[in-house]
Every structure is written in C-alpha cells, then in structure tokens.
Design goal:
homodimer, 114 residues, 5 helices, elongated
Chain lengths: 114, 114
C-alpha cells in the first residue's frame, strides 16, 4: 500500500494537467468508456491510456474491461484526501489570522488604557 | 495574468512534492524566513529557493526581502481555488450517486407494483 504522502504526490501530480482534469470532470458525472473520454480531447487513444494510467496509479479512478470496452469510474476517496490536505492548511491559516487579530486588538487596548 | 487552468496546473504541480507541502504546512502557521523554512528539511538553501520559486509562480506564496532576510507568506486564495476545483468534482459525483439511487428505487418500485 502507498503511504499517505506518496498518494498526495501522485494525486496532485495527476491533477496538474488540463486533459486529466477534463477527464475527471467528465467522470464526476458518471462512469465512461475510454473512447467517450478521448472524444472531446482530440487525443490519440494511446495518449488517453497514458493519462488514465497516471490517474489509476494515484487511486483517482478505477477501470474494468468487459468484452472490448474498458469502463472508467471515479474513486472519490482519493480526491477527498487531497481536498482535506488543502482544507487543513487553510484552516490553520485562518486560525493564524484570528490569533494575529486578537494580538493586534490587545496592543490597541493596551494603548487605549495607558 | 495567468488563466484559471494554468493557475490550477501550476498549483497542483507545486503541491505534488512533500518538501513543498511541508513548507506550505509551516507557512499556514504564519510567515517565515527562508532559513526557517530550510531548517527542518535538511536541504541546501539553493534547493529551497528553487521550491519557493515554483510556489511563487503559481501564486501559492509571496515573499519580500528586507535587509538580508527574505520573508515568505502564504497566499491562501490560490489554495482556495484548488480546493474549490476538487470540491466541485466531488459534489457532481455525489449528485450523480443521488440520481443513480433515485433511478434504482424507481426500478424497484416499478417491480413491486407489477
């Protein structure tokens, strides 16, 4: 199993490409075949497969082949982990601003009472 | 000005590295000097500067030099844009699941009334 940091490395790397984000945006509306994902991108099937491989290795998607059709679906848990990492940093930043604001108002009050 | 897609490319690419995420996690608690950021990473100052450059170009951080000290601070807006992109995909996925569930229950009810 990949450790959390490696999962985040691969997830954010997978998200750093507009074609891959486009495919994820399509998959957020439901599973799709590889050809359906390739169509709006004007991209060769091997290029699409390469992108899908990068996303599958990070756990963002899963795929299954039935007969000649490979169907791809979103695995939302990996997106959630990436979202949580960012949200935690943002919360810490907001807590920092709150502390800073409280400190400033202490300084102001000290000035007013002197 | 960078377009939104390019900002997301650079932001997610900047987040795809444990050393850069470590620096952002430190900066979420407040501004820091370049040496303070370098210290826990056991990394050369030029290597740290390289990472900071990647994060500054994506708008994740800003830095300012006063005398001999360069102070780095988080720019939370860029993190928020990345977080929003992921959250929107997750919401679409949840809406898809709701529709799928509603469809399944329609099928079941149709079966029950026949």
């Amino acid at each position: 199993m990949l450790n959390d940091s490696l999962v985040l490395d691969r997830t954010f790397a997978a998200l750093a490409d507009p074609a891959r984000r486009g495919m994820l945006a399509r998959l957020a509306h439901g599973p799709a075949s590889v050809s359906e994902l390739a169509e709006p991108l004007r991209m060769s099937l091997p290029a699409v497969m390469q992108h899908l491989k990068a996303m599958e290795s990070s756990g963002l998607i899963a795929s299954e082949k039935r007969g000649r059709v490979r169907t791809v679906r979103l695995k939302p848990g990996t997106l959630t982990a990436a979202e949580r990492w960012i949200r935690d940093r943002r919360s810490e930043w907001e807590a920092h601003l709150d502390r800073f604001e409280a400190y400033l108002s202490t300084l102001k009050n000290d000035g007013a009472t002197q």
